[in-house]
Amino acid sequence: MTDHQPESASAVRPYPGASASQWLEGARPHTWANAFAPVLAGTAAAQLDSGASFLRALLAAIVALALIIGVNYANDYSDGIRGTDDERSGPLRLTGSGLVQPKKVKYAAFICFALAGIAGIALSLLSAWWLIIAGAVCILAAWFYTGGKNPYGYRGLGEVAVFVFFGLVAVLGTQFTQTDSISWAGLAMAVTVGALSSSVNLVNNLRDIPTDSATGKITLAVRLGDARTRQLWIGLIITAIVLTAALAAVHAPFALALLAAIFWYNASRFIRAGVKGRGLIPVLGITGRGMLIWSIIMLGASFLG
Question: Is residue 145 a contact partner of residue 116, using CB atoms and an 8 Å limit?
Answer without folding.
Answer: no
